[in-house]
Amino acid sequence: MTSPGTRADGEADDLDVEEALALVRKNPGTPRGESGHAGAPTPGTPQGHHGTHGTPHHPGDSHHRATAWPEARAAAERAARAAARAARRAPFSVPLDAALGLTLAAPLAALTDLPSFDTSAMDGWAVAGPGPWSVRDEGVLAGHTEPAPLTDGEAVRIATGARVPPGTTVVLRTEHGRTGERGRLHATHEVVHGQDIRPRGQECRRGDQLLPVGTLATPAVIGLAAAAGYDTLTAVPRPRVDVLVLGDELLTEGLPHDGLIRDALGPMLPPWLRALGADVRTVRRIGDDAKALRRAVTTSDADLIVTTGGTAAGPVDHVHPILDRIGAELLVDGVRARPGHPMLLARLKGDQHLVGLPGNPLAAVSGLLTLAEPLLRILAARPAPEPYTLPLRDAVQGHPYDTRLVPVVLRGEGVVPLRYNGPAMLRGIAAADALAVVPPGGARSGQEAELLDLPWATGGIGVCFT
Questions:
Q1: I want to staple 136 with a disulfide (CB 3.0 to 4.6 A). Which of 142, 156, 270, 381 is the partner?
Q2: Which fold has domain 119-198?
């Protein structure tokens, strides 16, 4: 199945003349496939790249020009920047326990000195002057009011984190002291003035900038904010996403039967989108009902609508015709990538977009990371990940013209491609740490491959699934 048609190429005013010419002159396209929920490839030949707004999508067209994979991601980023300018969404105040995964919209400045008083770094004794020392009966615990001052020759038991009594010169660790027959405290190690005391303001002073605008609220950032005196953070709102699951053949429970299959994307996409920074508001099952799909698209006020399946030109592939009828602008209409060739990106309004994912599960993942991830990242004002490469342990067969995205696991200083990487398969991606970007023609063993991290595989912010 093919997805012919014409398309616009995004924010023309964001391109300089040389970039625009490069887009018009880019290399020819390649056969399309992996559409709908079946994944059968059908040959096609390239058409002009320039496309026009509102051009009908004709199933009989034999020419189509898909976008190269890097250019598709760049188009999604341009679209997101334009949408962010159009939406002008105001930052909001969020409690610390709800801030995970958000981006700071204001600098994090210390509201107090850290620590806010001299504290003990260890369990032991607070001592004053040279030893041996006489030990007071009472001890000093964390969270108590300021203790009485010490005079030279005195010591008092102290707990980690407790306020150091005025006059203290050293905190003597428990394992570095002993008491003699008369109850006097003796040091068993060298005593250095100020040791094991955390002085007030050691980490920061009130008003110091701790973190800049644009910092991702990780668990450590939230902890620092709490320590610095914050109850809430000023953050960029999450982009709102509606998910529309298409296909009459999908079951929501039980075993496949009578030509029906289980829906994998309905359960998978919402947590994945949340891990990418989205606020997933609804997941609606539309089936193959064109009227219901149009109604769902035109009544949604989400920043991004994500559809599954229906992006090709089959008898029940309704996404292209509906986008044409409502006057949407196709920014990316097919990508030279395997799996996921028939993915698309459309602008519905100035600040609203639709990402059409293929129906095959791994093809949908490819579309998610190619088009949805850059768009959501910029709308959420998240920092771009640093690109990196690692050598492939095994050779990977490539497509003659298209980029391949292959599930891999990290092993030492390299990555191992996984076997189950067909468009309809999730077994490989479920075990993967990343997707390797394999250029047209394939990659040999030992060749460096660009990697796309999965949001939970890095042990970072991807744990935010709720």
A1: 156
A2: Molybdopterin biosynthesis moeA protein; domain 3 (2.170.190)
